[in-house]
Amino acid sequence: MNAPECSDRTPADADAAAEPAADAACAEKASADEAGVEKPSAEKPGGDTPPQVGAPLEPAADGAATNAPPPAPPAGKPAAGPAEEIARRLKLDRAAVAAAIDLLDAGASPLFIARYRPDEVGGLSKADAQAVRDRLREARRLDERRASILRSLAGQTKLTDARRAEFERADSLHRLEDLHLPLKPRKPSPGAEAVRQGLLPLAEDVLAQSPAAADLDARLADFVDQDRGVPDAATALAGAGQILAERFSEDATLRGAARAIVRQTGRLRCRRREGVADKKAEPHKNCFDLDQPLRSAPAHRVMAINRGERAGVLQVSVESDAEAAIERGAQLLVEASHTHAGFLRGCVE
After folding, report:
1. Which residues 6+ apart lie within 8 Å of 77 measured at CB?
2. Fewest C-beta atoms under 10 Å: which of 116, 239, 272, 335?
3. CA distances (Å), origin 22, targets 13, 18, 67, 69, 157
4. pLDDT at residue 300 above 80?
5. Residues pairing with 225 in the sheet
6. Residue 120: what pLDDT?
7. What's the chain look like in SS3?
8. Angstrom distance (rounded) from CA 297 to CA 151
9. What is the rounded CA–CA span in Å between residue 207 and residue 340?
10. What proportion of the chain, given as a percentage, has pLDDT over 70?
11. Torsion sign (Cα): 246, 252, 257, 262
12. pLDDT at 345
């Protein structure tokens, strides 16, 4: 029978369940060592010898390991690159983090780093070692994505020194992708169509409070062109608004602020889709009629909801404070004294 999704059992529970057996094995070996007796190894019926505590580490796919970790790295090995940043973020000792990274790179799991190498990692707990592992993975994903984006922009001759510096300062994948978004090849959109119609100079004039756009009605008349699909001033103004709205939506600072508001105010809601067979829906029943703050949703529950949505069983939505996001966007992008502040606020919305 399939276990229900959205249960409160986390992946960490599996490690906790395995620890008593590992502790017993360690205690048994320690007793044998003290007595000076070498404990004979048990063999499986097929002749395979199970790994013993202290044998070379064989990392498991789930991040745990069935035996002891590898030997410590050789003396004099340089500290890992991201150690300083990870130590700062986690408020841990830099040398301990660097040693933990070396062991992780050699195949050790957080459980074995904490249990068998406490002296080398300054007494880091299993939770600390897990946090270092997770941060290390994030840092390396970030570096790989950054390098990929910079290579792409260099090939398109879009990489300036200022842009490179911005990308180098990006400290998250979200920030990196937000910076990259305006530089990606354009897809067909209302804003792109307005640019094709020749309305970009109008949008620039409005945003920059150009003297040419002080009399907006007169300036709009300059862009009326039947051949380009701009039959009147209202169409010209709407096109300029589309250009600015798309530009605002690609602003990295605004996107980061909006994302923070969604995290703080968002509610995660999901319900069973109509017409789904009971047998198909059964594994996901614990997710039916779920309504909780987004910021308190544990990762394992979000993953279960994603599976239910992909299976076509769950209908999922996230609702947040849209007014707060609009207000924050207006604060960031529209000066209160701007000549066309009302128009620009509409573009933000």
Report:
1. 102
2. 335
3. 15, 7, 9, 13, 56
4. yes
5. 230
6. 92
7. CCCCCCCCCCHHHHHHHHHHHHHHHHHHHHHHHHHCCCCCCCCCCCCCCCCCCCCCCCECCCCCECCCCCCCCCCCCCCCCCHHHHHHHHCCCHHHHHHHHHHHHCCCCHHHHHHHCCCCCCCCCHHHHHHHHHHHHHHHHHHHHHHHHHHHHHHCCCCCHHHHHHHHHCCCHHHHHHHHHHHCCCCCCHHHHHHHCCCHHHHHHHHCCCHHHCCHHHHHHCCCEHHHCECCHHHHHHHHHHHHHHHHHCCHHHHHHHHHHHHHHCEEEEEECCCCCHHHHHHHHHHCCEEEEHHHCCHHHHHHHHHHHHCCCEEEEEECCHHHHHHHHHHHHCCCCCCCHHHHHHHHC
8. 36
9. 8
10. 77
11. positive
12. 93
290-293 and 267-272 as β-strands: parallel, antiparallel, unpaired?
antiparallel
- pTM across the whole model: 0.63
Q: Which range among 3-17, 65-79, 95-109, 183-197 shows the weakest confidence by mean pLDDT?
A: 65-79
Cβ atoms of residues 280 and 310 within 8 Å: no
The reported pLDDT for the residue numbered 18 is: 45
Contact criterion met (CB below 8 Å) for 24 and 115: no
Share of the chain above pLDDT 90, in %: 63
pLDDT at site 156: 87
Task: Note the pLDDT tens digit of each residue in 100-127.
Answer: 999 999 999 999 999 999 999 999 999 9
